[in-house]
Amino acid sequence: MPNAPTDHQKTRPTVAVVGGGICGLGIGWRLAAAGCRVDVFDRGVAGREASWAAAGMLAARVETEPGEEPLLALNLESQAMWPDFAQELEAASDIALGYRDEGTLVVAAHRDDAAELRNTYEFHRSLDLDMEWLTGGQARRIEPHLAPGVSAGVLSKGDHQVDNRQLVLALRDAFMRAGGTLHENTPVEAIDVEAEQAKGVQVGGRRFDADMVLLAAGAWSYDIDGVPPAARPPVRPLKGQMLSLRMDPRAPIMDHVLWGPGIYIVPRRDGTLILGATVEEKGFDTDLTAGGIFRLLEAAWEILPQIEELPINEMWVGFRPTSRDDAPILGATPVEGLVVATGHHRNGVLLAPLTIDAVSAFMLDGVAPKSIETFGIDRFAVRQTQTANAGSQE
User: Fold this and answer.
1) Which of 37, 84, 298, 357 is most deeply buried (CB count within 10 A of its CB)?
2) CATH code of domain 101-160+236-322
3) Going by DSSP bridges, is the β-strand pair 263-267/257-260 parallel, antiparallel, or unpaired?
4) Which residue spans of the chain are classified as CATH 3.50.50.60?
5) Residue 82 has what pLDDT?
């Protein structure tokens, strides 16, 4: 029996990537570095949709809600990968990611909020998450500019942040340095599927041949033509309005990521202070609204009144790619050669290291890492079958 081919002797697949956000660029980077010919196609400027609109929080602990216990393990695994991933990507791109590990502080704006915060804290502690309960005074010692009415807090030292826009720029640079080709302002019209196998993508009225296609188009992933229903990821846009203020970087009014009722506030080292985000089922509506921006400013002012004098820096709208169960859709589809990486909802930045490594490993070796086995597109087909069977028995 002949010896198995070495990695250098194996023929690497040619790959077409639909979507140039964090997933598309990151997985493309790994594949190009492994010797694949990789072309990333983006409908606009790469990384300027959800990846650009995010706040960059790495908050596996404080963001966990009841019912999300299966997702928690995935989030914690990816969060643990972040320090090494950031170091590797910075070396590959020569771009600093603004990774910060001061931790995340969650506060109750008033005494009425403290009971709810306590319930959330007890839920997190029941999951063995490392959290510290604080009085209002203790919270103000950590962040002195908190409002006097803040009555309690929770400190999560393990929940960090990264500058997501720097992350996008770094992934773009690393991908191209690895030999990948980026096609911006080049929308993919359809994925070509023949005999249940992906053959390439339609771009500008002609086919771009590829051995494998990665569908990583974020909230637009459902709308790409040519994909059979069973392989079409059930992803929708969840609108979020956000804004940023401008602090003096020499004298920032806060250092930790801060959460309060209806608001999160994220400080950057350059003085940017990000406020987010509304949650709206309005499709691809790009309008900023007075009510949405007002609610964010009001909620932020209640816990951090010093924002009142800060100038507004920027306002924007982003679209979270949200699946039916708010969890990512990763890996194989019923179409041979068609792979998906989408549906990350609010965890796209947090899950970047794990998604990039797991999906690229699957595309290179054909074996899905155990961490993503339960997050495939097939889970939706199973639920549809169970629902249909239940209906037939009534």
Assistant:
1) 357
2) 3.30.9.10
3) antiparallel
4) 14-62+165-234+325-393
5) 98
